[in-house]
Every structure is written in structure tokens, then in C-alpha cells.
């Protein structure tokens, strides 16, 4: 008897969580490990948000809420979309879940039928393809690279569309590359999408972590026609350093929201009532902490990219958003030292081999690019202090020097 369901055959454990767990184990054993793996801010949740959670508990707001979220949190989300994005929604078009990941999972479970295709630009967030497979859809991966700024072109999108295409995933700023699309970039994609019967899933989780005055734009903001075909997913985890609070939300087609509500009602029911109160305070309260965190991220961004580009064989572009660097190691992979290492270890994935050795011998945790669909690179989160960034990149530099001996 096969104990495990066949649907799990197509799913891999999250490599980011696995690498972070291993790094934490090594730290617990007393090793000085620099962790570039975790995709979460290192700042504490702002105090006014924590106070709102305490107040909610004191007021007895500790019971079940409607599955799709409290009325007051939905009102805050609606106001957020109207004020910040110029988008208008009704309450039946809003859903709140236990983190953005659950919202995405419920969306695909509610919309995909076996064989439906989902276009996913690569490099991509690790869970997109696996969630699509769990929902019996077919991921269609469209590769981008450092030369294109890790952004899919209108021509690439057009070529990827088939009669089976159901969803196009748009993620800007991006995890893992930090790439962000300009308004003209988005307009070019919309010209392709607007005439088509395709849902655009816009993952806006890094919306507020964007640099150099770049304007945030998603496809729904381009035209009213496109808004009707776009399902927008967001959350409070990244912008407000609330990863552990587990609140994500989405806005879009009311029928999709209704069926996501049904899915959620048979799994987790409502997100934590206390976390919902905290999320409401995050969206409606003082936004100064967001600006302060962004300022720190910007400084770290410039530091890590500058240090990485000093290493022979490594090329790293300056990301426009999020808190990830995605350096290319093609020059390192081409060295005799790395080729000998690959032959010795017998590892097919270049980035996995590099990251395995980097952690085991140099005490630095990074996520291999193969996990995001690009074996040329590594993902380094710079959501850690400047001294740790300098220490960690110095160790990467030392590994590259050792390979060249």
C-alpha cells in the first residue's frame, strides 16, 4: 500500500526553509554562520502594530471571524487599494488568508482544472510551480536572465500563450531577483494580455520595498479592462516585518473570491483574529517604520552589490526592489577549480554545489539559483546587518580564491 498521495510526487520541500533550518542548526551548535537564506526582514514588528494586537486581546477579540476576514480589516484593505493604487473594490472582492502563500494556494485551487497552463517567468519564487502542480495545472516556464534585467518581454509572453493558458503570474518587485517593472514595461505586457481571456495573478508582496523613486505599477493599474482580469495578492509580512503574524490578502473577481472562501472554510477557516487586528493597524497606522526599514535596506543593497562585484567571476546587478541580490557566478563556474570540484562531488546543479560547499566549509547559507529556475545564480537576502553582509561576502570571496588556487 502506498502511504503517501501521488500528488506529492510532483512537489519538492521549500529549499529556502530547508537551508534556513540547516543554518539555524549549525548556529545552535556554536558555529558562526552568516545566513543569507531567509526571506524576511530582520527588524522587529513596529510597536504600534504590536500594541493593536495587545488591545485586541484585552478587548476579547479572540474568537472566530468570518472566513474571508473581518469587516474592519477588509475596509482597511479597500482603502489601501484606493489610496495607494487607485483601485476600487467591494467587500465581496476581498479575501484575507493565513499568509500570502495560503492566498496564492487557494487562488490556484479555486481556478485551475487539469491541464490548464500557468505562465511563470523565471527566475521565480520557489512555490509558484509546485502550487500550480498541486492544483493539477501545468507550469509554463519562460526564462529571463541578467541581460534582460530578469524581466519577461511582451514578445516572450505572446509566444508562451496557448489555447490552454489560464493564468499569467506577474511578480514585481521580484523574489528572487529584486527586478521591478517600469510603467512602460507593464503597459507593453498589458497590450498582449488585454485582448486575451487570461487571468493575471499580480503578486505585489514587495510593493513597498522599491528603490530610487521607481513608481510601483501592477497590471490592474493600467486600465479598467485589465483590472477586471487581474487578481492582486499582497500582505503585511514584508513591508511591516510581520512574517510570523501570517496575514495575506487579495482582491479581484468576486466569484473567484467566493470559491477561495469555500476552499479556506474547509481548511483553516479564518486567519488569526489577533493577527487581523494587527494587520489593520499596519495598513491604517503610521507608515514611518516602513520608510525607515526601506532606508536601511537601500544601504544594504548598495553594499552587498558593490562587494559582490569585486569578486572575480561574479556579476551582480543592482536590484530595483525587495531585499535580495541575485549574483551570476558563470565566471566562477568556468574556472578549473570549480570544474574539478564538480567532478569530485558529482553534483549536476552548479548553484547547489556552490551553496553546499559554501555552507559546509565557509559557514555561509545561501539559496541556489536552481531553486528559482536559474542555475547560474545564487539568492542572497540582505535582510541582515551590514557587518554580517561584509563578513558573509568576504567568505564567498575566500571560497572563490580557494577555487582558483
Automatic annotation (TrEMBL):
Its EC number is 2.6.1.-. One of its GO terms (molecular function) is transaminase activity. GO terms for biological process: amino acid metabolic process. Its cofactor is pyridoxal 5'-phosphate. Keywords: Aminotransferase, Pyridoxal phosphate, Transferase. The keyword Transferase applies. It is an enzyme of class 2 (transferase). Residues 32-396 form the Aminotransferase class I/classII large domain. It comes from the Bacteria. Belongs to the class-I pyridoxal-phosphate-dependent aminotransferase family. PANTHER family: ASPARTATE AMINOTRANSFERASE (PTHR46383:SF1). This is Aminotransferase. It comes from Leptospira idonii.
Amino acid at each position: 500500500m502506498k502511504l503517501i498521495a501521488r500528488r506529492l510526487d510532483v512537489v519538492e520541500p521549500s529549499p529556502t526553509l530547508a537551508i534556513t533550518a540547516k543554518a539555524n542548526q549549525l548556529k545552535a551548535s556554536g558555529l558562526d554562520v552568516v545566513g543569507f537564506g531567509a526571506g524576511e526582514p530582520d527588524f522587529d514588528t513596529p510597536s504600534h502594530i504590536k500594541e493593536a494586537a495587545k488591545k485586541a486581546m484585552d478587548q476579547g477579540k479572540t474568537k472566530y471571524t468570518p472566513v474571508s476576514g473581518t469587516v474592519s480589516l477588509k475596509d482597511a484593505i479597500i482603502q489601501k487599494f484606493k489610496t495607494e493604487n487607485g483601485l476600487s473594490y467591494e467587500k465581496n472582492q476581498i479575501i484575507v488568508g493565513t499568509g500570502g502563500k495560503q492566498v496564492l494556494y487557494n487562488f490556484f485551487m479555486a481556478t485551475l482544472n487539469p491541464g490548464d497552463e500557468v505562465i511563470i517567468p523565471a527566475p521565480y519564487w520557489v512555490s509558484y510551480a509546485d502550487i500550480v502542480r498541486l492544483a493539477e495545472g501545468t507550469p509554463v516556464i519562460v526564462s529571463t536572465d541578467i541581460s534582460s534585467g530578469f524581466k519577461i518581454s511582451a514578445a516572450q509572453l505572446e509566444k508562451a500563450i496557448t489555447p490552454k493558458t489560464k493564468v499569467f503570474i506577474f511578480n514585481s518587485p521580484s523574489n528572487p531577483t529584486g527586478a521591478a517593472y517600469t510603467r512602460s514595461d507593464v503597459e507593453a505586457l498589458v497590450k498582449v494580455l488585454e485582448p486575451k481571456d487570461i487571468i493575471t495573478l499580480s503578486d505585489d508582496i514587495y510593493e513597498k520595498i522599491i528603490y530610487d523613486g521607481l513608481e510601483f505599477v501592477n497590471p490592474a493599474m493600467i486600465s479598467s479592462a485589465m483590472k477586471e482580469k487581474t487578481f492582486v495578492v499582497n500582505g503585511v509580512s514584508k513591508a511591516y516585518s510581520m512574517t510570523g503574524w501570517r496575514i495575506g490578502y487579495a482582491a479581484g473577481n468576486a466569484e473567484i473570491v467566493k470559491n477561495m472562501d469555500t476552499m479556506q472554510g474547509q481548511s483553516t477557516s479564518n486567519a488569526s483574529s489577533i493577527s487581523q487586528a494587527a494587520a489593520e493597524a499596519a495598513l491604517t497606522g503610521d507608515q514611518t517604520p516602513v520608510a525607515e526599514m526601506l532606508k536601511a535596506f537601500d544601504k544594504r543593497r548598495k553594499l552587498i552589490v558593490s562587494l559582490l562585484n569585486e569578486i572575480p567571476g561574479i556579476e551582480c546587478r543592482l536590484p530595483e526592489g525587495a531585499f535580495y541580490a541575485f549574483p551570476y557566478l558563470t565566471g566562477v563556474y568556468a574556472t578549473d577549480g570549480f570544474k574539478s570540484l564538480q567532478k569530485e562531488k558529482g553534483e549536476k546543479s552548479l548553484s547547489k554545489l556552490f551553496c553546499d560547499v559554501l555552507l559546509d566549509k565557509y559557514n555561509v547559507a545561501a539559496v541556489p539559483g536552481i531553486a528559482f529556475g536559474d542555475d547560474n545564480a545564487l539568492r542572497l537576502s540582505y535582510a541582515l546587518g551590514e557587518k554580517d553582509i561584509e563578513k558573509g561576502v568576504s567568505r564567498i570571496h575566500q571560497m572563490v580564491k580557494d577555487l582558483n588556487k
